[in-house]
User: Fold this.
Amino acid sequence: MSTFRRFLVTAACLAVSGLATAADRITVEDLLNGESLDSSWSGSAFSPDGRSLAYTVNTAASRRPTWGYEAASLQTMARVFVTTGGSEPREIRGTPTELYSLAPVDAWSPDGKSLLLIATARERYGLARYEPDGGGIARIPGRIANSFIPTFAWLPDGRIAYATIPDDERQSRAGAQTLNGIASRWGSTWNAEPAAVTVHSANPVFAATEPRPGALMLAGARDGSTYKIADGDYVSLAASPSGRHLGAVASGALVSDPLNWNGRLGELRIFALSANAAKPVPVAGGVDVVMYGGLSWSPSGRNLLVVGRPTEAKTRETRLYVVDPASGKQRALDTPGLSFVNPDPAIGTYPAGWLGEHVVAIAAHEAKNATGLFASSLSGAGTLEYGQGNTQRTDLFAFTKGKPENLTAFAKGPVSQFATTGGGTLLTVVDGALWQLQPGRTAKRLTPESAQVLAFGTDRRNPPLRAQTAYYREGRDERVSLSVLVDGKPARRNFDFPTGRLEALPASGDIVVSAPDRRTVLARTEDGWTSSFVLDDGTPHPLAAVNANLKGKAVADVEKFDYTAGGRKLNGFVLWPPGASADTRLPAVVSVYGGMVYGDQPPPHARPAIEVPAFSGQLLAAEGYAVVYASTPLGRGADSDQPAQLAEAVVAAIDALAAKGRIDPQRVGVMGQSYGGFSTAALLAQRSDRFKAGVALAGLYDFFHAWGMRSFEEIFSDQGLGTAMAKFVEEGQGQLGKPFWHAPEAYVRMSPIFHVDTLDAPLLMLHGDLDMGGTDLAGAERMYTALLRAGKKPALVHYWGEGHVAQSGAAMRDQWMRITAWFGHYLKGEPISP
Assistant:
């Protein structure tokens, strides 16, 4: 069927069903040509004094280059603007050969005079410093390993400590570099040069190939100088408050049972810094240090808190260590039965820090009537539940008298964050209230019973910001930002300590980022498909507006519903196609991500937003489908049946909607990406009688295969064989707990590839060849072959040069064309295109 003919058929169907006309519907081309206002990744940041603001407007996917970067959506689509004191915003302009984006965290220097940028060119990326006061852009020498979360730390005087890799080493998520490296290695062998080999060995007969080490560098404040502090591969840095010392975690030797997901020991390093020199401080070994979030300096800078695990210990429990930076001596705190590592790998550790010179930390521990440890989803949609620590809870502990004191034993719920105050007390949010805590004293509730406090009012970022960023004190002004339930929706409020009142902020839209005073904010307002940035300090100052041409496009209504599965009442959401009649039973598509549990707010992908088309519920609703978001709490894969739990929850959601007469239970499809791709295949294997078809993007189909698998770019490098994907399988969403040879039955139960005999509904798989291990193209090809061998009718589309999420506009357009054709045929009965 031609595109024009398919358009006529679709338009006729929409007219008959009473749906919005074609002219009013949002289309894939609208999304690919629309701009967006970045709100959660690396898009906006206030300077420390709150006078300057940097923000990002993202260019259209159809007009941006990818240059082979899997993080192109962050690196090559950003247009960065800066405004100071309400002045006219100035764009930090790139060139045809180099583009700039904000550093994902801590973009501003401590004095607010410099911005740290990611400078991206076709062949490499690195750091650059921008001086808003007319100093221009200055490249910082060296190649960084990762643009997503680069390893750097500001010193108080404006110098930057940062980690680099050798000039000829491949950078992360850089497909062009991988391709060039392969051509060079293969070419040398084909041209009769010495054999190009990489050796992976834990045996003394052959030494393993180790990539040349990188370096820890120090860049001058504004004079362009740089010098090397030390050789090594550094993954985490923390400067002391005075700038006299630098704490660092280096990537050490590969080990069989590592604490860190890259399979290597985390080695603590400390350097004493002066104006033009750095001296290493000898540090006692024997500790495997957590690589992300494992370092925290005391306010005086006389002590460094380290989260780690004894390298020789048989236990997997983590401990707290206090290190003297002057001597390198360390002492372990008494932490019996406490765990300080967060089950969410994106976060690293539970919050830990200092109350004066005393250690305070949140830890998990065994407890009666525990509700388990849940991770917050990066999308902010709800929580992710995989049975993590289902016999544990989290509390805030103080270490003031040798033994840990549980400061939140009174609480019914788990504690997730804390902040310290200028008055020597602690703040936490638990059981719907803000509490003031102090060792040896009874907790004091600060907010009134009438207020339902949900969390600290931190700005959304990845990795998530700590609660300390929500606290402000200057002179007599003291306040903390909170998220409070107002008229059934979360809203930002400031708790004012002098008055004891909750204060509303002037912002009329969603708060994107707050100034340090927690009163001046950058807000995003939305009117359908149009978005605006407004700087609001009591007086709104419009900064940017995008997609005025989409103002008249229809928006699908979202409705919350509830249902029961596994003896638990759950929330779900459904998008109704614009203009759909309440008397018409609609075909439905379930957007699934196993483990997601929704609260009272709709998923971000249900709102009208410019995003990857395959993720947009609004775009799918515009095609005439009811789009269903179901909560699917899961247990540990080691001792429960995740696929069966998925099926029970999703089928219960479908039945609840079908009982209302709005969806046709005989015309239901399912789709998901990443763990949602696994969820899609698992659902079809469990209940093909309830689903007509499924689409899996970047899915995982075989946990045996995923265990220890690496990405294409990792395979074609000298990077050692670590345990990242093994750790993911055992400790990530699958929660299988053990390697496959110790629990083969659980691996079979979890893996859709072992259940292809019952996977009767047609499955479309969309995969990029630069995807990470586990969700790689090879796994998809094995799944396709298994389905084919079992006599099924699968389809697999290989996207060349794409990774876990499509980056190019062309690939996004092709994905959407295939998704709509697949569901159009199986759910609407549309004829197959020739």
Summary: The CA atoms of residues 708 and 725 lie 5 Å apart.
